[in-house]
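Per reviewer request, we include the raw input and output of the structure prediction for the construct analysed in the revised manuscript.
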Amino acid sequence: MKFYCIADEDTVRGMRLAGVEGRTAASAREAGVALAAAVSEPDNGIVILTQDVASGIRAQIDAHRLAHEQPLIVEIPGPAGPLAGHLSLHQIVQAAAGVNVGGNDAEP
């Protein structure tokens, strides 16, 4: 199972340093094409998108999630931080792990 990232240039570059392949998307059209390609690859188990990118292709993401269990599509904050009404990366990890991972007692 592989991870794949669709995001802005800085996020994709950072993910590549961690060994995660990816593709940049500067528009909703580019993001939609990238997502279609990523979900069609059988080795991709988790597709990571920044919240900014995901907001432009919400209908496509929702349709995929309803129709398919894999790959899992995960949204993370971009370089500017979480979008209004979204959780921070720390809160996402804390909620997923079920434990406090940063020493902060704040609930997600």
